[in-house]
Amino acid sequence: MYSNNIKRIFTLLIIAFFAFMALGAKAQVKSYFGFFGGVSTPLGEFKSTGYNNNKSGFAKKGLTWGFDGTYYFYKNLGIGATFTYQDNGELNQTDVNNLAAGYTSSYSADYSTVTATKRYQSVNFLLGPQYTFTKGKFLLDLRASGGIVKVYSAPETSVLLSGVTNQTAIFYQRSASATVLGYSGTAALRYKLSDNVFLTLRGAYLYSSGPSVTNQGRTTDLGRTVTKQPITTINTTIGLTFGL
Question: What is the CATH number of the domain that holds 212?
Answer without folding.
Answer: 2.40.160.20
